[in-house]
Design a protein that fits this description.
Strand order of the largest sheet: 7-6-8-9-10-13-14
Shape: globular
Structural class: alpha/beta
Helix content: 40-55%
Oligomer: single chain
Radius of gyration: 29 Å
Number of strands: 14
């Protein structure tokens, strides 16, 4: 009886063993899978780099059009950032006060997750930021043309827009070589940017046998310049050269048209901005040309098409040079971090020594931190608010 009871019990255990063992193996396999998933997640987190990107730009005030374009370009770069970067952007409105950029940089420069900062396109503000950048040893990236910002011997200053010494060389070459004009009137804002452009245009025109027969500085807040235009007309120039911020140049072009002063105009990049052109009628822009840092068209390559498509989809207009240059410059810095830069000094070294292919051009810093060396000329035909590319100058080194 005892044996007959034992045998069935033993047989019952044998029948249960494979099923119990199977469940154990399944539980063991699940543990292995969970452990592997945790390990992979931990590894991914370990490889992810967190950084804060301050975007200091004039979002309000008289430079809001330019500053908004700069901000749009910076935000697009963050949206297109290399995988593996966890980015926290910090937008700070620098307004138009000279100290606006410096005060903002003081607030963000001590953050250990901040390896560089976007700086305003307003050269006056950038000049005030240079001592702060040097004190904290933090690279600043600015799409400004104002000449002096890279003439101060500051190794942390990186200019994303062509130096006025470069852009005005192309500007004057186009006027003299293509338009065959040499008797110029120059109108400029009394800001650092306006004065920088006036300086180089005057010098370069003289070097090629031209002459400035009239010039006048216009305050950034000016709304009416009829007296200035009367003096300009009396001087009888064959071309009007302009170096102004967006609101000012739109006002000048409109008032030139209203006064029926039919003289060719070659301005700076702000008149090539879609946002500036939208303040005018196509007829008011007839005969107006402009130098600019960059001009994008679809079909160049996949990266350019992606940038254009995403920008137009988000903002409803083509990007202007400030948006394009800021996008390229910020992408260059983000690529530096993705490639292993772990400090402000690492980013400075990368920006100083590396050639980078952006959507607009190839960027390579000279000894002063000037990264952009190409310029384009665009012109309006009077029938559209969209100018056409008419001339490109690469590897420009000034006169």
């Amino acid at each position: 009886m005892r044996c007959r009871r034992i045998v069935p019990a033993f047989q019952h255990q044998r029948r249960s063993l494979p099923r119990n063992l199977g469940r154990g193996r399944m539980r063991f396999a699940r543990r292995i899978m969970l452990a592997a998933t945790a390990l992979l997640s931990s590894s991914a987190l370990a490889q992810e780099t967190s950084l804060t990107v301050p975007i200091i730009a004039p979002i309000t005030g008289l430079l809001a059009l330019e500053g908004t374009s700069q901000l749009n370009g910076a935000n697009m770069a963050i949206a297109h950032a290399p995988a593996g970067l966890k980015i926290k952007s910090q937008v700070i409105d620098s307004g138009t006060a000279a100290e606006g950029g410096a005060n903002a940089l003081e607030r963000v420069a001590g953050d250990k997750s901040t390896y560089f900062s976007v700086a305003p396109l307003f050269g006056t503000q950038v000049l005030a930021m240079l001592p702060v950048a040097l004190e904290y040893k933090i690279p600043i990236l600015a799409p400004t043309g104002t000449g002096p910002v890279t003439e101060q011997g500051n190794p942390y200053m990186f200019r994303l827009y062509p130096h006025d010494a470069v852009s005005k060389a192309a500007h004057i070459r186009y006027v003299v070589e293509e338009l065959k004009l040499k008797k110029a009137a120059i109108l400029y804002n009394t800001t650092g940017y306006g004065q920088s452009g006036f300086k180089y245009m005057s010098e370069y025109l003289t070097k090629v046998g031209g002459e400035v027969i009239f010039s006048e500085g216009v305050d950034l807040s000016a709304k009416e310049i009829s007296a200035t235009l009367a003096k300009l007309k009396a001087a009888k120039p064959d071309v009007v050269l302009i170096q102004m911020h967006s609101a000012s140049i739109a006002m000048v072009v409109k008032q030139l048209a209203a006064a029926n002063i039919q003289i060719p105009v070659v301005g700076n990049t702000t008149i090539a901005m879609p946002a500036t052109a939208s303040l005018l009628q196509p007829s008011e822009l007839k005969g107006v040309c402009a130098e600019s840092a960059s001009w994008l068209e679809k079909g160049a390559d996949a990266a350019t098409d992606r940038f254009i498509n995403d920008y137009v989809s988000k903002h409803g207009a083509m990007p202007d040079a400030y948006a394009i240059q800021q996008y390229d410059g910020l992408m260059m810095a983000l690529v530096a971090v993705k490639g292993g830069a772990k400090s402000t000094e690492d980013v400075r070294k990368y920006m100083s020594t590396t050639e980078y292919k952006g959507v607009a051009m190839r960027y390579k810093a000279d000894a002063k931190g000037n990264l952009a060396h190409s310029v384009v000329i665009v012109c309006y035909d009077g029938a559209s608010l969209n100018p056409k590319l008419v001339k490109r100058y690469d590897n420009v080194a000034g006169f």
